[in-house]
Amino acid sequence: MSQDPAHPFLQRLAERPFDRSLRLVFADWLLERDDPWGEVIALSERGGLSLTERRRVARLTEQHAARWLGPLAALADLSNTRFEGGFLSSLVCRAPEREATWLACAGDPRLATLERLVLPTGREAREVVGFLQHPRLANLKRLQASAIAWSLLEREPAPPFTLDTVAVASWGVFAGELLPVLHVPWVKAARQLELVTSEFVNPIVVGEIRRSLAATAQAAAEEPGSALLDGAPPVIFDEVRLAAKFGVVEGAVSWLIAAALDAPVNRWASRAWSIEFGDGVYSVIRDDERAAALSVDLGHEGDLTGLGQRIATAASVLVQLGPGAFESVEVHLPEGARVRGSERDALRAATRRLRTVKRFSLGGANLSP
User: Fold this and answer.
1) How many Å is the maximal CA-CA distance in the chain?
2) pLDDT tens across 100-140, in order?
3) Number of domains in the chain
4) Are 296 and 330 in contact (CB under 8 A)?
5) Is 300 domain-assigned?
6) Residue 100, exposed/middle/buried by CB under 10 A (0-12, 13-18, 19+)?
7) Does some domain include residue 350?
8) Which domain, by its residues, includes 291?
9) Phi and psi at residue 147, to the nearest 5°
10) Within 13 Å and on the Cβ side, how many CA atoms surround 165?
């Protein structure tokens, strides 16, 4: 690592990872050496990019990501790892050939800007604990791991980061997999619980996941020494989100209607129940034990590609949500998105079928449902 000419800059940036002036100095240094990394940083710091410039940033990042990662490339799943403004923001890990790689990479300065980390499942290593304890991860906001990996953290000291999102990865319906997470004391500061399943999500699977949530809360309440009363949850998150890799529209609809009609399972979530489906996020916003609003975010990290398909999927979901008795529907679009009249009409027609909707918003504009 010390032989990398950029290393002194990266070390300085690790101390001030979001310092715009320091980033621009680094970009100038890179541009003097005809390094496209400098162009990506400079463009991103300038902001207000055209569609052509955004596409160039994306293309250069994809082409050079492995080099920009340095030693971290030994851990990274390159196809899913993300940069923002030329700096590492989301690291999806694969199991390295040598477990010692975790500790060898723990102090890398590139980790200072990392906000989202996904640990591999199936080869959980004790060395991951040391990796997570390094101060370089102070800006981490989302951690995804299996129940086994979470159990490794149960008796460890609090890490240098404070999470907004705790994500649990499962091949199934989380039966018996959530309790180890609740045993990690510092998890309680998180705002969101995310359930990442590889199961094919349909109404039956949704029912099983909700039963797992109820069973976990009950098991936690019955543990020796538990201070929980009346089966109340050990943690109340602001939001519980189901991340469905595979599934059908009926599965998403089932999750949303259940959240709208039923009190949340033992009050796991105090405000919202949501599901990631079809490159969109659908959220039931609760108010005083009653679902009043549905929020549909089609932003997909600002990507305009495939927006028409996302809108079509949203219309398919909306038209089946009649039993939810929603009072308002708000559809969020990526910045700079242009919606065809036919796409707008499809969303309005689907919302109109809900009958109870009094307010419909598309891309920030209020429209009559």
Assistant:
1) 66
2) 999 999 999 999 999 999 999 988 889 999 999 999 999 99
3) 1
4) yes
5) yes
6) exposed
7) yes
8) 278-369
9) -60, -35
10) 21
